[in-house]
Amino acid sequence: MSVFWALCRQHMVLAWRGGHTTLAVAFLFIGVTLMPFGLGPELALLQALAPGLLWVVLVMTLLTSLDRVFQADYEDGSLDQMMLMPLPLEFVVLAKLLGHYIALVVPLLLAVPLAGLLLNLAPAHLPMLLLAMAAGSPALVLLGGIGASLAVSVRRGGLLTVLLSLPFYVPVMIFGAGATQQALAGEIDATRLAILCLFSLASLLAAPVAMAAALRNAVR
Amino acid sequence: MPKPQKKFLPVPYAKPADLQLAGVACTRGMRRLFEGVSFRLKAGDGLALYGPNGSGKTSLLRQIAGFLPLAAGTLSIADKAPYGVHFMGHADALKNALSVGETLAFEAALWGAPKAKDPLLDTDRWLTHLGLEGRAWQAVGDLSAGQRRRLALAKLCLAPRPIWLLDEPMTALDEAGRHLVNALAGAHLAAGGVLVASSHVPLDFTTDALTLGAAA
Predict the structure, then answer these.
(1) CA separation for the pair B206, A153 (Å, rounded)
(2) Which site among A68, A159, A174, A196 is 20 to 30 Å from B109 CA-CA?
(3) How far is CA B27 from CA B1, B55, B137, B216, in A?
């Protein structure tokens, strides 16, 4: 078990030192700042669109951050070593993604309220938005990890990762944005939240197997 | 050159190693690299792999490690007990952003090193052993190729594994570094391990040799 936490910690240290955390948060803010320029400064319009826009920007930030999650390991030979570590590869990838989640996604979620201010997000909608994002983001990271592991042997495979992962993201986006729409009407949507949690749990079961298979294929 | 300290060298393995290959072949793309490779290594045997570039030395090592499928033949490892293999390839698997001391600590944790071998207890002596004294705080990215190679060797001593697969272990190493590899490999074989090492220069510690792609 200590191997699992060591991998997770190593990934976090590398994400922080490599500036990935700062870059991801900066990317989120830049994406959000661009929106009013495109949509116009009308506050009522921005308020209506804010939850959806924040979802789209979060997904884009996650996708751009995920393409390096296994690629650096592939290039420096760590992937070979990961096959031989005293921990099944399925748990090795899970440890790395957990490190990725703590080092990148948690700071992003913390930045969402501030980014919401820039879009005139109504404070009443914030709790539901954050709940939906917290429930759905594990699925986003795990499903994006499948795309990243499939594209690992492709140099500059970032765009490929996005292409491979986006179809998987559609259901999470539909229910995530749907749950937030309900919040606009002033309700807490427990059903959609439960479905988002279901997506996350299901990908927790299935994604590590798929990622490990893709990575085993990549070291050939 | 400081003499390698006994404490850092492999101790006798719980189970004697036994590695057996019969009629192994390897195909990359459409090309058959080699076929009919058969040998058996028992505790204390070290096999040197020679052969021109592209003859399949690295591929054979990767097949034994389990990365590459066998195109034909069988491979059996006596102590199939999980994770019995160390593989050292061309890529050293070191992270530039970490310091040398951190790398040692992570390697020990990642390979599940026994507590007694935990470098956190004794980083300075580990670094002296590897010929990297006084560099605990230096970033791995600032090390020379040979120094990186020395640091990568630490893994071999941190977790005891009876089978070592070394891909050109002498690359980039100076004379003292080559002594270090010789001492490590010698102690590994004496402890009942086996190793397969590819090389373009003659290796001192091997007991047997196999040349791939020789007018076959």
Answers:
(1) 34
(2) A68
(3) 43, 11, 44, 15
Interface check for A186 against chain B (CB to CB < 8 A): the answer is: no
The total domain count for chain A is 1
Residue by residue, pLDDT tens for chain A (220 residues) are 689 999 999 999 999 998 999 999 999 999 999 999 998 888 899 988 898 899 999 999 998 888 878 988 998 999 999 998 888 999 999 999 999 999 999 999 999 999 999 998 888 888 889 999 999 999 999 999 999 999 888 877 778 888 888 888 999 999 998 888 776 666 777 888 999 999 999 999 999 999 999 999 998 8
- Nearest CA to B39 out of B58, B60, B59, B54 is that of B60
Mutation choice for A interface testing from B58, B64, B110, B117 by most A CBs within 10 A: B110
Q: Which residues form the domain of A167?
A: 2-218
Nearest to B109 among A6, A13, A80 (CB): A6
Q: How many residues does chain A have?
A: 220
What residues of chain A lie within 8 A of the CB of B95, using their CB?
A: 10, 14, 76, 78
**Which residues of chain B lie closer than 8 angstroms to A219, CB-CB?**
62, 67
Set out the domains of chain B in order of their start, with CATH numbers.
Answer: 6-211 (3.40.50.300)
